[in-house]
Design goal:
This protein has helices at 2-17, 23-29, 34-62, 65-84, 88-103, 106-116, 122-151, 154-174, 178-188, 194-198, 201-230, 235-260, 265-282, 289-321, 323-351, 355-376. By secondary structure, it is an all-alpha fold.
């Protein structure tokens, strides 16, 4: 079941990642300002942040499969919306609908995996799912750059639809049905009080980390293409930069996830997060493709250190309060960061330029790291 979940997440994320290197440039071609580029990129995450806690809670009581199926159905058709968008407003609307589809897929898959993971083996299992997610996005980002260079901007969007439809067939055919899921969950017990979940210090600490970490990721994904274009780096080069970052996070997640099962998860999260802050502060000093490549390699490894440990910390609460609800909250924190990162970065770019985006992201990431350490008490 873990391998099936991983395969599903991988295929979906290839489709999502494939549009990443071209979306800011596509929005720019429609006349978007820096703020609108940020909002278009963030609209996906805004929608996820709104819907994920509710969908996570519903999946604890009504089954996981139905939501994953609906999400993939949305993905399959919304790809056409990208192709036929002719204004900035239409493109923003498409991104909001895409976010709803995503809210039904990835957090539910993580909840599924966390439920069937053995005690103190959560880091390894969630690291494997995280690897599938990151590798899928990384492969997709690289393919998106290559496909848009070779065949035009529409091809990556059509590819998103085809991959989503294929994954939909896979899920309908192979995933357990809802009756089986609910019988298993009734035996485990079910508590889905979102207010109670948010009262845990560990949840507050981990969500603060995920928010600032995702703020930085949102800034990188939305504005590295703009920054790199100023250095005369091609879309293929941009795809390589972003995919290396994301794929290294994925490749190393199972290793650091297993390590998190044997050592302090808190210090792994803090170490990865504070190192990410340092890398972000160095980006404005990069003046070539090689400089940006090295920094993206380092950032990818830092993410692999922190993310699986943070997920594993949440599973202890999830076993008591409902894994879908907990993973929905965790992923909502991520989406808030992914939403605010591009929007605030767009405002900064319009006001003072693209370089200062990465300085701000580094400072926010560092402050969030310290808050995480304080909230968790350095234990765990």
């Amino acid at each position: 079941m873990i391998h099936l979940l991983a395969l599903t997440v991988f295929i979906v994320m290839v489709g999502v990642g494939i549009i990443a290197p071209i979306l800011p440039l596509y929005a720019d071609s429609l006349g978007a300002t820096g703020l609108w580029i940020g909002f278009i990129y963030a609209g996906f995450a805004i929608s996820r942040a709104i819907f994920m806690p509710l969908i996570g809670k519903l999946s604890d009581t009504r089954g996981r499969k139905i939501f994953i199926t609906l999400g993939l159905l949305i993905y399959s058709f919304i790809s056409l919306g990208y192709v036929y968008s002719t204004t900035v407003y239409e493109l923003a609307g498409v991104r909001l609908i895409s976010g709803l589809g995503s809210a039904m897929v990835t957090p539910i898959a993580f909840a599924y995996a966390a439920e069937i993971a053995p005690k103190r083996g959560e880091g390894k299992v969630l690291g494997e799912i995280g690897m599938a997610l990151s590798l899928g996005i990384g492969v997709g980002v690289f393919l998106g750059g290559v496909l848009s260079d070779r065949f035009g901007v529409a091809v990556p969007f059509y590819t998103l639809g085809v991959l989503s439809a294929f994954t939909l067939i896979l899920v309908v055919w192979l995933f357990p049905n809802a009756d089986y899921e609910l019988r298993r969950r009734e035996k485990q017990g079910n508590h889905t009080n979102l207010r109670q979940i948010m009262s845990y210090d560990v949840v507050k600490g981990v969500c603060s980390f995920r928010l600032v970490n995702s703020f930085a990721i949102g800034a990188i994904m939305a504005f590295i293409p703009i920054y790199a274009t100023g250095l005369e780096i091609t879309p293929t080069g941009v795809g390589i930069l972003l995919s290396v970052n994301i794929m290294l996070t994925g490749i190393f997640q199972p290793y650091f996830g297993s390590f998190a099962d044997r050592t302090s998860r808190v210090w792994l999260v803090f170490s990865g997060s504070i190192l990410t802050s340092i890398v972000l502060l160095l980006i404005p000093y990069a003046v070539s493709f090689n400089h940006l490549l090295i920094l993206n390699i380092l950032m990818g490894i830092c993410g692999a250190i922190a993310v699986p440990a943070s997920l594993a910390m949440m599973t202890d609460v999830g076993r008591d309060e409902g894994m879908g609800s907990v993973m929905g909250i965790y992923n909502s924190a991520m989406s808030v960061g992914l939403a605010t990162g591009p929007i605030i970065s767009g405002i900064i770019m319009d006001a003072v330029g693209v370089h200062e985006i990465f300085t701000l992201a580094g400072v926010i990431s560092g402050l969030g790291s310290l808050y995480f350490l304080w909230r968790t008490g350095g234990k765990g």
